[in-house]
Structures are given as C-alpha cells and as structure tokens.
From TrEMBL:
<dbReference type="Pfam" id="PF00296">
    <property type="entry name" value="Bac_luciferase"/>
</dbReference>
<dbReference type="InterPro" id="IPR016215">
    <property type="entry name" value="NTA_MOA"/>
</dbReference>
<keyword id="KW-0503">Monooxygenase</keyword>
<keyword id="KW-0288">FMN</keyword>
<feature type="binding site">
    <location>
        <position position="51"/>
    </location>
    <ligand>
        <name>FMN</name>
    </ligand>
</feature>
<feature type="binding site">
    <location>
        <position position="147"/>
    </location>
    <ligand>
        <name>FMN</name>
    </ligand>
</feature>
<dbReference type="InterPro" id="IPR051260">
    <property type="entry name" value="Diverse_substr_monoxygenases"/>
</dbReference>
<feature type="binding site">
    <location>
        <position position="222"/>
    </location>
    <ligand>
        <name>FMN</name>
    </ligand>
</feature>
<dbReference type="InterPro" id="IPR011251">
    <property type="entry name" value="Luciferase-like_dom"/>
</dbReference>
<protein>
    <submittedName>
        <fullName>FMN-dependent oxidoreductase (Nitrilotriacetate monooxygenase family)</fullName>
    </submittedName>
</protein>
<keyword id="KW-0560">Oxidoreductase</keyword>
<feature type="binding site">
    <location>
        <position position="151"/>
    </location>
    <ligand>
        <name>FMN</name>
    </ligand>
</feature>
<feature type="binding site">
    <location>
        <position position="97"/>
    </location>
    <ligand>
        <name>FMN</name>
    </ligand>
</feature>
<dbReference type="GO" id="GO:0004497">
    <property type="term" value="F:monooxygenase activity"/>
</dbReference>
<keyword id="KW-0285">Flavoprotein</keyword>
<feature type="domain" description="Luciferase-like">
    <location>
        <begin position="20"/>
        <end position="383"/>
    </location>
</feature>
<comment type="similarity">
    <text>Belongs to the NtaA/SnaA/DszA monooxygenase family.</text>
</comment>
Length: 432
C-alpha cells in the first residue's frame, strides 16, 4: 500500500474555474474546507498547503503578469488556513509551508505547537528555504543568503526549534486540581540554543502539543537539499522525471539517511503528479491538451520558472533553443523545460512540458491511471504520491475527479487506505 497527499495553494482557481459562481473568493477558506472534507472521505493522509513570500518581478522585469494573471500570487498565509481546515477534518494531516530563512525558531516552535494543539495532533511543517531576492527585500534583508548557506541556516533552525519543543518533558504539565499546581518545575528547562546564526533561550511558553513537534515535510531537490532531508525530514515531496529517476531519488534519500544514522523507514518519499482523469482515455487526453497547450499554460510555466530561477525567460526567442542559463534557483525544473542538447525550440519544449513538476504523465481513465500508479510504486519501491492540480491551483472539478473516480479505483486495487486508522498525522506514516 502507499500514501496519498494533496498539494494545494491558498489562491485556488475557483474564482475563474468551471464552478466559479459557487465561491467567488478564495480568502474565506471555504473552498479548502470543502475540498479537504472530500479528500478526508477519500482517506488522504494529508493536505499540504504551499507558500511563497513575494510578488515576483522577474518575468518581463515586472510584477504585472504575476498580478494580472494570478501566477504565484495572490498568496495568503497557509498556517491559519490549516486551523480552519483541521477544524472540519478530524482525521487528515494538515501541513503548511513556512520559511526557515524568514521566520524565527521561537515564533515557529510556538506557532506550530499552538496549531498542533488546535488540530489536534495533525500539523505538518513544510520547511522551505525560500528563493528570490524580492523575498529578502520584503523582509528588510539586504540580500538572500546563498543557496547552501540557506540550508545550513535551516539545519540550525530545526535544531533550535527542537530544543524549544524539548524544553518541557513528558509529564511537565500536571494540572493538579488538589494542589492547584499546573507545571512540574523539574520537567521544564531553558533551551539555551546558540548557533552560528540563531540563538534562543526558552523554555517554550506553550504546553507540549499532541505530536510535540509537527511532522517535518521537505522538498529540497539539490544535493544540499537532500542532505537536509536526510537529517530532518519525515516526509519528502519530490519531483523526479520518470520511474528510473524516482527510484534513484528515493534510494539516494534513504542512503543519505543511513549515513546520518537514521532509519530510512522513518521517512516517506512521495512523488508529485497531476492525474487527469476522464471517462475515456481520449477524453482525458483532450482535457490534458486543452490545459497544457494554452497561452495561459505557457505563460504560467515561463513566469513561474522565471520566479523560481531568478532569470527572465521572456527575453528568449520562442523559435530557438534556450541557451545555457546559470541559476541559484530551480536548476532541475529549468533543465526539464530546456531539454538542453536536444536542439528543440523553446516553443516546442513548452508544448512538451506538460505539468512542469510532474514525475509521471498520468492521463486516462480512473482505472488506467490507478493501474499506472500502482505499477510505478511497485517499481520505485516507494511510499506514495503527492497529487497536485493544473497550475498548482485546484478546482472543485479537479478534486472531484480525484476523490470520486481515481481514489475509488485505487481502493478497489487495495493499494491505498479505505479507512482512516490513526489519530495523529505522524502515526499514519509508518503504517506501510
Ligand atoms: C512538491 C513540492 C512542493 C514545494 N513547495 C514549496 C513551497 O510551498 N514553497 C517554497 O518556497 N518552495 C517550495 N518547493 C521548492 C523546494 O522547497 C525547493 O526549493 C526546490 O525543490 C529546489 O530544491 P533545492 O532548494 O534543494 O535546490 C516545493 C518543491 C516541491 C517539489
């Protein structure tokens, strides 16, 4: 059996989607509450809310296309959204992305402890190191730290947060009615963390939450990103193109975990896919082509990749191959688009790109896609999938195609859960 997670962003496509009349705004969170209920009924392990922290100004040297066409932005803070969603979904994990570069360990440890108490026991923290100089400017930093330094900082951030979560032992909260004593003083201590960048005293001022620390989710693809994952992550969400690359990715993360002294089975590696499900294979293929051959999709890919790489892709001739481009950002996604060495024009590459970060192209009937997913997991030896939506912006129609058609087909094969078994997000993970 394997795990299912769902990847979503705050600004869903519903304002402009096929059922737009139902929820004109995304900001009240209703869309996410409704869809999370559907995902819970389909026994998803968790919903992962992404985040990015700035209105990019890279594509065309301007923020216009991002604002006007709702690409990367608008974005609202995903952490409060997980509380709203968690209040209506008593069994699904709710994970939110928070930056280790622009948050403080004390604030994050306190926030996550609070949310894990409110949800209760189902909060996950997707650690992002953040890219783009715009983020640094928004947070008043002179510039963004270099890529690998951001990961060194992130390691330190996790250690500092860990020290804070551990500043109260099990049993520190006694709440003794007879004596009126709330805490056992012998079980509370300062964290006293001092690193190269970060310091915090503690103790944390919250009571320990049901999971004590949130489930740590991570998506770093680079060498340094994988080293961070091997040291810290309990769930890795990955993009690797094709079965071979997926297997190599998982094997690599697991080998690095062994080197770091961790049990490789204490981390699940889930692969990002965007299944497009139709009543027939032809219908699904037509739907996929309608979604990926549009001007909007091309602009989405170019503007998004410009933001993720810091390189303005609008300056390149669509009818020539992309020249080599150096980036401190998403080199892997850029290579996937460019197909360097193939001599294909950028226009041709865009037509072949499909959904940018997908590991597999899953297009067909519910039965055929379920079969492909099950076969892929057999070959990869893997732990599951993170299901995304076209343009990362889910619609009710897309979610329904997953929960009402694809998941039942997977359940009929016995490869995913048919009922939720555990109370906390973390308890779900080692079940298979
Ligand atoms: C499934 C998935 C989800 C991601 N979600 C976010 C996110 O919400 N916010 C963010 O800043 N980066 C996000 N990223 C980017 C990663 O954090 C990371 O920066 C990227 O994969 C490049 O890896 P590297 O940082 O190790 O070079 C995501 C990546 C993947 C594959």
């Amino acid at each position: 059996m394997f795990h299912l997670g769902f990847f979503t962003c705050f600004a869903s496509d519903e304002w402009n989607g096929p059922l737009a009349g139902h929820s004109a705004s995304f900001a009240d969170g209703r869309f996410h509450v409704d869809t999370a209920r559907d995902l819970e009924r389909a026994c998803f392990d968790f919903v992962l809310h992404e985040d990015s922290l700035a209105v990019p100004e890279v594509f065309g040297g301007s923020r216009d296309v991002y604002l006007e066409e709702a690409l990367v932005t608008p974005e609202h803070d995903p952490v409060p959204l997980t509380v709203a969603v968690g209040a209506h979904t008593p069994r699904t994990g709710v994970a939110a992305t928070t930056s280790t570069t622009f948050h403080s360990p004390f604030a994050l440890a306190r926030l996550s402890s609070t949310v894990d108490g409110l949800t209760p026991g189902r909060f996950g923290w997707n650690t992002a190191t953040s890219t783009g100089d715009g983020v640094a400017a928004d947070f008043g930093a002179p510039q963004l730290l270099d890529h690998d330094d951001r990961y060194d900082l992130a390691d330190e951030f996790v250690d500092a947060a860990e020290a804070l979560w551990n500043s109260r032992d099990e049993g520190a909260v006694v709440m003794d009615h007879a004596t009126g004593r709330c805490a056992d003083l012998a079980r509370v201590r300062p964290a006293d963390f001092r690193g190269r960048w970060l310091r915090t005293r503690g103790p944390l001022d919250t009571v320990p939450s049901p999971q004590r620390r949130p489930v740590l989710v991570q998506a770093g693809a680079s060498d340094r990103g994988r080293a961070f994952a091997a040291r810290n992550a309990e769930v890795v969400v990955a993009t690797a193109r094709g079965i071979e690359a997926m297997r190599a990715y998982r094997d690599d993360v697991r080998a690095r975990m062994v080197e770091s002294g961790r049990d490789p089975d204490s981390c699940e590696v889930l692969f990002l896919v965007t299944p497009i499900v139709g009543r027939t294979g032809e219908e699904a293929r037509a739907q996929h082509d309608d979604l990926t051959r549009t001007r909007r999709h091309q602009v989405d890919v170019l503007a998004r990749l410009s933001a993720y790489t810091g390189h303005d892709l609008s300056v390149h001739d669509l009818d020539a191959p992309l020249p080599p481009i150096a980036t401190e950002g998403s080199a892997g996604l850029l290579a996937r688009l460019a197909q360097w060495g193939s001599r294909k024009s950028l226009r041709q590459c865009l037509a072949e790109m499909g959904f940018a970060s997908d590991c597999l192209d899953l297009v067909g009937t519910a039965e055929s896609v379920a079969e492909e997913m099950a076969a892929a997991m057999e070959e990869v030896g893997g732990d599951g999938f993170l299901l995304g939506a076209p343009g990362f912006q889910p619609s009710r129609v897309h979610v329904a195609s997953i929960t009402e058609a694809l998941v039942p087909a997977l359940q009929r094969r016995g490869v995913v859960r048919s009922r939720s078994e555990f109370e906390t997000f973390r308890q779900n993970l080692p079940a298979f």
